[in-house]
Structures are given as C-alpha cells and as structure tokens.
Amino acid sequence: MLRFSTAGESHGESLVALVSGLPAGVPVDQEFISRELWRRQRGYGRGGRMRIERDHAHILSGVRHGKTIGSPIAMTIANNDWKNWTEILPVEEGDPAKHKAVASPRPGHADLAGALKYNFPDARYVLERASARESTARVASGALAKLLLRSLGIEVLSHVIRVGKAELSRPAQWDEIVALSQKEEILLNCVDPEDEVRMKAEVDAVLRTGDTVGGVFEVIVHGLPPGIGTHVNWDERLDGLLAQAVMSLQAVKAVEIGRGVTAAESHGSTVHDAIAYEGSEEKFTKFSREHNNAGGLEGGISNGEDVVVRGYLKPISTLRKPLSSVNFETREPVKAAYERSDVCVVPAAGVAAESMVAFAVARLVLEKFGGDSLAELSRNYNGYLEQIRAY
C-alpha cells in the first residue's frame, strides 16, 4: 500500500517525510520537488517566515541513480529558523527559563484543545506540530506521487477561485492552470488577472486592520481514466478519500466535489451531466459528457472527466490584533498569543492540497493496477486503457 507519514515541528531542526509503497523505476526529478516546495512558499499575504526558509528536500534513502528502488523513501527538509530556537526547544531538558511558553490560546487554533488533551501547561508543543509548516513535508511526499502519476499521463494542479469576497468570474481552462503553475512569480494563483487584482485588494484590506482572510482553492486531476475508486464499500469511494485527504489540511473547513454546493439547491435536470456517444478520440472512451458538474466522479468512481475538488479555507487564526482569550496560569482574561504568521495562505493551501489529492489518487491507481516496478504498472495500466477504449 502506498502511504506516507511526516514528523517534525514548526521551529524544530527539520521536517521529516517517509514514503513507502512506490514501485521501483519511477524517475525522481529533484528540481521538480524543489519547485513544488517553492510553490508552497509563494503567494501574496505570506508572512516573514517565508523570507527565512528556503525549503529543499534532502533524500536519504529509496532513490538511487535518479529512480526509486522500491524501498521506503526518507526525506528531510531543514528549518533555517532552527538556529533561533535551539535553546528554546532543545531535545534534552534544557533551561526552563529559556522556554517560550504560549500562555494564552488562540481562538480557532489547536492550542486549547491540544493543551487539554495532552495536559500541557501551555500550548507551545501543540502549536509546534499543529502548524501548517507541517504541510511542507506533505508537499515533498506528494511530489513523489505526482511523479508517479505523471509517468502514466496524469497531472494534478490547483488554482485559486476565491479570496474573501473576491471570486473568479469565469471557468478556468486546463491550459491556463498549467501556465499558472509555471510562472516565476506567484501572486494569488488566479487565472484571471483582473480577478486576481480584486483578490489582492481583499488581502490589502485585512493587512491594514490586522486581520486575516480565507478563500477557496480548486484542485484538478487531469488525465485520470474512468474506473478509479469503487462504489462497493464506503471507505473505498474516491470522493470520500479525496474529501478526507483535503480536509486533513490545516484550516480547511469544507470540501466540495464538482458542483456539490450549488447542486444541493438545484433541480436534477440542471445538475446531472447528460451522456452522449461518438465523442472525441482524445478521450478515454467515445462516451462524452455535456458538462462536468459531477466533478469527474459518479458513485465514488472516476468517470473520465477532470476530477474537480474544492477546499474551503478559513482565515488564519493568528491575528496581529488578537482576539480575547484566557491566561493558562491565572485564568484571567487576556488577549490571545501572537506568533509570526501569514495573512492569506489560500494559494499555498492549494499546492498542499494538490499533494494530498495526488497521493489519494496514486494510492488507488496502485491498488487497481499493481506492479512492483513502473514497467509492470505501465503494462497493466495501458492494458486497461485498451480495454475501456474498446468497450
């Protein structure tokens, strides 16, 4: 089974990612992995931490001569800021006087719930692991899943469709999203320049008031054939797995597949995608769809259209003008703690969501087609494509 795990804290020495289950022979492009990590760090509204870190995945095992060898892949991503925290967060006991306590929990963060759960006197250790800095290791892991999918002609990318109340005013085309991912400067990762200006204005408004702003990103899986996922068991449905994968990201509070939200208030005749035959030869089959309101999924199974997943991101919970809270020690009302933070992270969250979606899809692809090597997987996969084209 393809799986990954991460370790590390926001201000610890490094983040760690461990990926197992990738077949042997997958080309590993380290420049691509670095580019993915770079994309996660970009975006208008990011905080000062991004000026400190220059994320790079150092591969320790599982890759030799530029290809996977079938064994677990271990990676570390160093935290440059660690040099400022060596005495604050030492592995050994250290000097308690140098401990930097988080004395008042931040509303919306894991601070209070985590401190209660683990019986910590303050929220420092909770903050360190709950931080979205952890998603760096997810992006490094997801880059490997993307490289596997790319070997089969499947691509995963994202773009931003809303920041605050400013929303993308038209549908995005796949070619536009590809071009967006290749830009050397990332603002808010929106395909429409005029809409992006309005999104930037939303960020500027909260910057002036010491507030934060959320939004919506959209992840597209392009080139996925029909038949990935299944309807037969509740925990094997592709839509459920995608929802869990994206919802697991920090600050994501809702997930939508296709037109899931507006479909709930619409009539079936306007929601369901009419089926035709003798479609484009470029498709996997000659069956075609009038629209893609289903987001590429029906009954928990991919249907050959682009898979469309949206993540709804709440505003970051660390505010420069903090909300009311309570001091852990005295129980007196105070303002919530402030840690250096971002104002808007919607583009970065979209990149992290790409990794989670890619991993969920790659896992199901490997479960369906098997193979200990990329050559074996490709034979099985191409044989299936021939089968559905001949249907």
Task: Give an overview in words.
The chain has 391 residues and is of the alpha+beta class. 34% of the residues lie in helices and 19% in strands. It is built from twelve helices and 17 strands. The chain has helices spanning 30-41, 49-52, 111-118, 124-130, 135-151, 174-181, 193-209, 238-247, 260-263, 268-271, 346-369, 374-389; strands at 3-7, 14-20, 57-61, 63-64, 67-68, 73-78, 155-163, 166-167, 215-222, 252-257, 275-276, 288-289, 297-298, 301-302, 307-313, 324-326, 333-335. Strand 7 (155-163) and strand 8 form a beta hairpin. Helix 1 (30-41) runs antiparallel to helix 11 (346-369) and helix 5 packs across helix 11. It starts with a strand and ends with a helix. The mean pLDDT is 95.
Q: If classified by CATH, what would the architecture be? A: 4-Layer Sandwich
Q: Please state the structural category.
A: alpha+beta
What kind of assembly state do the chains in view correspond to?
Answer: single chain
Mean of the pLDDT scores?
95
Largest sheet: 5 strands, antiparallel
Number of strands: 17
What CATH first level would be assigned?
Alpha Beta
What percent of the residues sit in helical stretches (DSSP H or I)? 25-40%
List keywords for this structure.
single chain, 391 residues, alpha+beta, Chorismate synthase, AroC fold, 5-stranded antiparallel beta sheet, 4-stranded antiparallel beta sheet, 12 helices, 17 strands, 19% strand
What is the strand and helix layout of this fold?
Blueprint: E1 3-7, E2 14-20, H1 30-41, H2 49-52, E3 57-61, E4 63-64, E5 67-68, E6 73-78, H3 111-118, H4 124-130, H5 135-151, E7 155-163, E8 166-167, H6 174-181, H7 193-209, E9 215-222, H8 238-247, E10 252-257, H9 260-263, H10 268-271, E11 275-276, E12 288-289, E13 297-298, E14 301-302, E15 307-313, E16 324-326, E17 333-335, H11 346-369, H12 374-389
Antiparallel strand pairs: 1-2, 2-6, 3-6, 4-5, 7-8, 7-9, 9-15, 10-15, 11-12, 13-14, 16-17
Helix pairs in contact: 1-5, 1-11, 5-11, 8-11
